[in-house]
Amino acid sequence: MKRTLVLTAFACAVLLNVAFAEAPSPAEPILLTSCGQSADVLMMKTLLARDSLHFVYLPQATYADLAGAGSIIMVLGGSSKGLGAAKISETEETARVTALLDSARAKDVPVLAVHMGGLNRRGALSDPFNRIGAAAAVRIIVVKGGNDDGFFAAIAAENSARLDTVDNALLVGPLVKAIFRPAAGE
């Protein structure tokens, strides 16, 4: 019995290492885009610029914009005001994001999903966008409050993605910087 448990644990560890090893590592330049057209993407833009990360900001990026991208950071959260300002419907935004993520998967471009809006970017409008972006991500970053019900944790578990939770939106920047530019020895 003990031998079976040890072998099972070893097999699980090997499978987990293979699953994570197959995922490409995030790299610059970053294609920064929105998934739901919330203004949260502008905060992410500011954080990337502050940390001098190389990125291109295209709030309505398409699969054609993937050329040369080392990674995608997709900022999650729906906004009726943002969709209206962009002059696109929820259906058109869903189609755009789905095509972009399908192309990224085909080209092995890693996706990081960032949910900065906490509880305010959850609900009937946001959650379909949150699910689409998070399900395609190799890593999901969520500001505390956005995952109190386990929504993102369940998506991360279903898709073998890493889930990071930070206390506030300002802490997203240092985490993202560490992902793209790890300190020596990490």
In sequence order, what are the helices and strands, one letter per element? HEHEEHHEHEHEH
Average pLDDT rating: 88
Query: What is the strand arrangement across the widest sheet?
Result: 2-1-3-4-5-6
Low-confidence stretches are 1-21
Rg from C-alpha positions? 17 Å
- By secondary-structure content and strand pairing, the structural class works out as alpha/beta
Shape: globular
Provide the β-strand percentage band.
Answer: 15-25%
| Helical segment count | 7
Please describe what this structure looks like:
There is one protein chain. With 186 residues, the protein is α/β, with parallel strands linked by helices. It has one domain (25-180): Rossmann fold, CATH 3.40.50. Helices cover 45% and strands 16% of the residues. It is built from 7 helices and 6 strands. The protein has helices at residues 2-22, 40-50, 80-86, 90-106, 126-135, 151-158, 172-180; strands spanning 30-35, 55-57, 71-76, 111-115, 139-143, 162-166. α2 (40-50) crosses α7 and α5 (126-135) packs parallel to α6. The chain is globular. The model is unreliable at 1-21 (pLDDT under 50).
Secondary structure elements and pairings:
Layout: H1 2-22, E1 30-35, H2 40-50, E2 55-57, E3 71-76, H3 80-86, H4 90-106, E4 111-115, H5 126-135, E5 139-143, H6 151-158, E6 162-166, H7 172-180
How would you describe this structure in keywords?
alpha/beta, disordered N terminus, 6-stranded parallel beta sheet, 6 strands, 186 residues, Rossmann fold
Describe the structure concisely.
The chain is of the alpha/beta class and 186 residues long.
